[in-house]
Amino acid sequence: MNHRRSHRTAVIIFAVALAAVVILAFATTLHDGDTRVADGVTPPGTVGLAKPHKPPDVAPGQAIPSLPHAPASSR
């Protein structure tokens, strides 16, 4: 009988702690009051926030020229 009571007490303490955490998380989330969401509409041809690279100005099959290296800074 004592084992059942201790188990029930542990479950009740866990439930109270879980409820407190959920309430605190909810209150913290809504503390600022601004619950706007981002718009899910993107312009045609885009896949996200990144801007696409400009296509290289070379014929297919040709090597893309590398960028010139910046001169080493002298100290």
Summarize the structure.
With 75 residues, the chain is mainly alpha-helical. Helix content is 37%, strand content 0%. The protein starts with a helix and ends in a 46-residue tail after the last helix.
Account of the protein in words:
This protein has 1 helix and no strands. By secondary structure, the protein is an all-alpha fold. The model has no long low-confidence stretch (mean pLDDT 76). The longest helix has 28 residues, at 2-29. It has a domain at 1-32. It has one helix at 2-29.
Characteristics of this structure?
75 residues; mainly alpha
Task: List the SSEs and their pairings.
Layout: H1 2-29
What is the residue-averaged pLDDT?
Answer: 76
The number of distinct helices, counting runs of at least 4 residues, comes to 1
Total beta strands: 0
Q: Could you list the spans in which at least 5 consecutive residues all have pLDDT below 50?
A: none
Largest sheet: none
Shape: elongated
**Helical percent range?**
25-40%
